[in-house]
Amino acid sequence: MPALASPLIHLEAAIILAIIAALSLKLKLLDLKGVTASIAIGYVIIVLGGLNYFAILLAFFIISSIVTRLRVKAVGELHIDKDWVRGWRNVLANGLAPMLAILIPRILSCDERIMAAGYLGAVGTAFADTLATEIGLFYRGKPRLITSLEKVEKGTPGAVSPYGYLGCIIALIILGALAWILGAASPKLALMLIPAGVIGTTIDSLLGAGIQGKYKCRECGRIVENPHHCGQQAQYLSGLTRINTHMVNLISTILGALILAALTALL
Fold it and tell me: Is residue 203's pLDDT more than 90?
């Protein structure tokens, strides 16, 4: 466990996070509240986990931001209610589970393998889901709702496509390779990350199709995940109004962490 009392670790974390925060604001990758949330999460991960674990989360953030910008330039923002400037809700939805995967095992003095598995399961699910969403929007046909397989419009919560699952697997291969190179995962754990991440992403889609609140825009007629769209109140259709895309992401990343940690403990 990193020495919490060492001022060097805290100084190192402060300098690294300050640089990343400044760049994120300059490049408009995060808004101010998003930066604040990311600093808190990053600090815990650097101090309690180490730079190798933080580098994995940073790679997820950088690659996801690049892919999002490429998607917006290629297909625009018409199919999805998200842009490249991420706020605190998005940061917590994707970063809280990885932080807890480091924090809780340190408090409980758990095996390092379990901590690594939980962390990679959380980050892997978040990364896989993000790339599945972004790359899935390049699919020329209509995606299908994961629960009924009926064709739906792009951006519909719970919609899946071949391109989406391709993006999911690409993300997991990149993350597993990086974790192995950085010494955060054995080859076995890096391979186990792939099925665990696919399961986590599938759970995210099932939650999106099942319990996430869904609305119909009164202006453009699209099925959307936000209660307000096109500058007005959208019509409620189904799902739980308190369960939005951020809550779905948080639940799926927690489950992704638990799945890979459980597989590691059993195998």
Answer: yes
Closest among 179, 198, 190, 194 to 49, alpha carbons compared = 179
Whether residue 4 is predicted with pLDDT greater than 70 in this model: the reply is no
Residue (of 240, 258, 63, 257) closest to 157 by Cα position: 240
| 135 Rama sector, left if φ>0, alpha if ψ -120 to 50, beta otherwise | alpha
pLDDT band at 222 (very low <50, low <70, confident <90, very high): confident
User: Is 97 a residue whose pLDDT tops 70?
Assistant: yes
- Give residue 153's pLDDT: 87
- The tally of CA atoms less than 13 A away on the side-chain side of residue 240 is 11
Give the number of C-alpha atoms closer than 13 A to the C-alpha of residue 125, restricted to the C-beta side: 33
> Which structure tokens are listed for 235?
């019509």
Domain coordinates of the chain in residue numbers?
A: 52-208+241-266
